[in-house]
Write a structure and sequence with these properties.
It contains 4 helices and 2 strands. By secondary structure, the chain is mainly alpha-helical. The N and C termini lie far apart (46 Å).
Length: 106
């Protein structure tokens, strides 16, 4: 799928911990906060404000540096789909938590 030749703590992690444990979760929270008051269709369209630039950045890193290497079955469309689905799923999850929290406060 995706390999990260240059990464922190390569003995312990096969993934890029900065992206997987800091950047992506933080970006999901930011997306949820930005779209908190938006209507559902706006939130669905708004996901592209983050997934498109992140996909473009990943593609540039893949082509110009040794930080990311795509496997044979992976390309930018997979990354775009993965990021978009992750943002939408995280927003759905956070919306569910907010809904449950508001109901408990009543």
């Amino acid at each position: 799928l995706v390999k990260y030749p240059v990464r922190y703590f390569p003995k312990y992690f096969k993934t890029n911990i900065v992206f997987d444990y800091i950047l992506l979760p933080l970006t999901c929270v930011i997306y949820s906060q930005i779209t908190y008051k938006w209507k559902p269709i706006q939130a669905i369209l708004g996901v592209f404000l983050l997934s498109v630039p992140m996909t473009v950045a990943e593609e540039i890193l893949n082509k110009k540096t040794n930080l990311i290497q795509y496997g044979k079955k992976w390309n930018w469309t997979n990354s775009f789909s993965y990021l978009t689905a992750t943002f939408l799923a995280s927003r759905f999850f956070i919306t569910g938590i907010r809904f449950i929290s508001e109901r408990r406060e009543r």
